[in-house]
């Protein structure tokens, strides 16, 4: 089964690197966005299997986006440790968290399989 994701981050360099990495590992990056409005629009168009959402989207909150993307499963990502956001992640509808340094197709699949 092909896994299609929406990648949401406000850093263009990270978006390009993450897209390349995920696609090399068999995850189709169906779309990218850099803010809440763009992400909601792309999610509505694409119907991704999962959204990978940066916790900090510039002046916007990735947690707010996670709430608004329901029922799409969301995995929060960040350059910061998950410990820094543990309570917020647990209180959010996100299915999990991945540090950007640990982002991989297999890590995404493992969180979706829980």
What can you tell me about this protein's structure?
Helix content is 40%, strand content 27%. It has helices spanning 12-24, 36-46, 62-68, 86-91, 105-113; strands at 3-8, 27-33, 50-54, 56-57, 60-61, 74-78, 96-99. The mean pLDDT is 96.
N- and C-termini, Cα separation: 17 Å
Uncertain residue ranges = none
Number of helices: 5
Largest sheet: 5 strands, parallel
Strand order of the largest sheet: 2-1-3-6-7
Mean pLDDT: 96
| Outline type | globular
Derived structural class = alpha/beta
Helix content: 40-55%
What are the salient characteristics of this protein?
two-stranded antiparallel sheet; 114 residues; 40% helix; 5-stranded parallel β-sheet; alpha/beta
List the helices and strands and how they pair.
Blueprint (H helix, E strand, L loop, with lengths): L2 E6 L3 H13 L2 E7 L2 H11 L3 E5 L1 E2 L2 E2 H7 L5 E5 L7 H6 L4 E4 L5 H9 L1
Parallel strand pairs: 1-2, 1-3, 3-6, 6-7
Antiparallel strand pairs: 4-5
């Amino acid at each position: 089964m092909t896994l299609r994701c929406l990648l949401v981050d406000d850093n263009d360099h990270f978006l390009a690197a993450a897209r390349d990495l995920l696609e090399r590992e068999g995850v189709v990056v169906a779309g990218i966005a850099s803010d809440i409005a763009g992400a909601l629009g792309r999610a509505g168009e694409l119907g991704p299997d999962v959204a990978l959402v940066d916790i900090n989207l510039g002046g916007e909150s990735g947690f707010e986006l996670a709430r608004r993307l329901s029922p799409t499963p969301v995995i929060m990502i960040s350059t910061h440790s998950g410990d820094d956001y543990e309570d917020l992640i647990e209180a959010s509808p996100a299915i999990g968290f991945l540090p950007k340094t640990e982002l991989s197709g297999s890590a995404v699949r493992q969180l979706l399989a829980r």
